[in-house]
Here is the input.
Amino acid sequence: MSIEHVDVAAYSLGLLNAADREQFEAHLAQCRTCPAELAEFAAMADLFAGLDPVEATPDEPDETAIVDLMSRRARAARRRSRQWTGLAIAASIALLGGGIAAGIAAVPQQPAQVSNQILGTVHTATNPTSGITGTVGLLSKPWGTLVTMKLGKVTGPLDCELIAISKSGVRRVLVGWLVPAAGYGVRGHPADLFIEGGTSISKQDLSLLQVQVVGGSTLLTIPV
Here is the structure.
């Protein structure tokens, strides 16, 4: 059986045999679109409630009819709303575990825009060589520490990440982002970059926050 995107519906219904299921799961781990499709089918049970049974015809077995029906209903649902995207990604990660999650994490993400407010205890630092400036706010949470940061005087293109380092040397990546060529907080683009992240390291146990180029140099170190 060749792997086609329509197999998502059959897989979600458990209609594939063991060999086909194993082959499809291998395809699923590398496909950009199928995980979202799979999650839509898993999350759209209410859309199929009340449907009349699909009767088989001589040239169309039951399984094919069900798969075709699900595919058509999924396409219609996507046309009605694009709000499934976030749910689809989250559900696909939950269904497929670390393999798909690792693939998604490997794609550079733009940081979520926050309210441009530095929250909690404030710390600042400047790189004397490059002039890059940073201000962070640390706010204790039951799960660890909420970190808000303002970054300026930085130009790209750069693939960056914010790393928290504990007093015992434990390192945790809080958030990653891309700095465009135009940069942030520089001439022509004066607005600083505001980002938000969290770490399981408690506020009391934090020692440093570092802005680093992924796989490269440290742009800024902020003692806390």
Summary: Confidence is low (pLDDT under 50) at residues 80-85, 98-114. Helices lie at 7-12, 18-28, 34-43, 62-80, 84-96, 98-105. Residues 121-223 form a domain with the Immunoglobulin-like fold (CATH 2.60.40).
